[in-house]
Design a protein that fits this description.
- It is a single chain.
- The protein has 312 residues and is mainly β.
- It has one domain (2-311).
- The protein is 6% helix and 59% strand.
- It has two helices and 18 strands.
- The chain has helices at residues 2-16, 239-242, and strands at residues 48-64, 67-83, 86-87, 90-103, 114-127, 132-138, 141-144, 155-156, 159-168, 171-179, 187-198, 201-206, 211-217, 220-234, 252-267, 272-288, 293-297, 301-311.
- The protein has an 18-stranded antiparallel beta sheet that branches.
- It is globular, with a radius of gyration of 20 Å.
- The model is unreliable at 1-42 (pLDDT under 50).
Length: 312
């Protein structure tokens, strides 16, 4: 069973990477009556997106052969603020985002106890036609463990190119490609479909968050599915020396995590949404792929997540 879960998770991670399928869910500038997915035409003089998310993961274990790290918890904090001004060719995305994974084991454990990224967001949403919508985004910034290690070696510029082809208001095809120089496979494809097959049911099979959705009314949405995460970082210059493994100094590490569970989205207003989610993590991987040092999950770990999203 462990081998099956790990194989499936790895295959999904290889085709998703970091948000490779980009669904541009907004409003059409030319045909608002018939399309649900297109570009935003904001009525606010100061348009922006804000997202804050906190996840707590209960005790879990990882191992590598006879070596292991046992009974540690995890906290994942994610915040982004993005301005979305409209220009002649589409909508700019200009802002900042930060994410920090913190793990509850000692700071001399064989894997880092913090993984941290803080980056600018520079992107553009545009449309090639009424049915073909595209997003290009660059996220230049720090991808390391501690911000005092910021420098050339911990600077990275992941790139996402993705978009949506609108077949109809009930069916869209999503595509994407991601580029990340710190990753084992720097260029990875992704994609999926979004199919509203009944008035209250939608199959949103788009990586990295494929899920089945049920919407009993316009303010409430229930869902069940997965959240596949894979982000790369660079550890500190003396990380390996402190642990007796100098080969890990300033090493590249990819952290992979698959969450499976369910949750709900509650629209507080037309512009604000609260999300609550819970489930288990069947797969986690700390991979120093350049030196073939990999710690993988042993068993499962429970998690809970709460998020707030606003778009004006």
């Amino acid at each position: 069973m462990k081998t099956f879960v790990a194989t499936v998770a790895l295959c999904l991670a290889l085709v998703t990477g970091q948000a490779l399928g980009v669904q541009v869910e907004t409003y059409s500038t030319s045909n608002k009556e018939s399309k649900d997915v297109a570009l935003v035409e904001s009525e606010s003089p100061f348009s922006f997106e804000f997202h804050a998310e906190e996840t707590y993961v209960g005790n879990g274990d990882v191992e590598r052969g006879s070596l292991s790290v046992r009974n540690f918890h995890e906290s994942d904090t994610l915040i982004h603020f993005i301005l979305t001004p409209r220009i002649a060719i589409g909508i700019l995305r200009l802002g900042v985002q930060t994410e920090r994974y913190s793990f509850g084991y000692g700071n001399l454990a064989p894997i880092p106890d913090n993984l941290h990224s803080t980056a600018l967001v520079v992107g553009l949403d545009t449309e090639f036609s009424d049915s073909f919508l595209v997003r290009l985004e660059l996220d230049p910034g720090f991808y390391g463990t501690e911000f005092d290690d910021f420098g050339r070696d911990t600077f990275n510029v992941p790139v996402i190119l993705g978009g949506t082809y609108i077949v109809s208001s009930n069916f869209q095809i999503v595509f994407g490609i991601g580029v990340d120089a710190l990753r084992k496979y720097p260029v990875l494809p992704g994609g999926g479909i979004r199919w509203k097959f009944a008035s209250q049911w939608t199959l949103n099979a788009v990586a990295p968050t494929p899920r089945l959705e049920y919407e009993p009314n316009s303010n409430l949405l229930f869902y069940a599915g997965a959240d596949i995460r894979a982000t790369s970082y660079r550890v500190k210059k003396n990380f390996g020396t402190l642990r007796g493994v100098p080969a890990l100094n300033h090493g590249d590490i990819t952290y992979e995590e698959v969450r499976t569970g369910g949750g709900l989205d509650w629209k507080l207003t037309s512009a604000m949404k609260l999300t609550v989610e819970g489930g288990v993590i069947p797969f986690r991987n700390f991979d120093f792929y350049r030196v073939n040092v990999r710690y993988h999950q042993d068993g499962i770990a429970p998690y809970g997540m709460v998020a707030f999203h606003a778009a004006f």
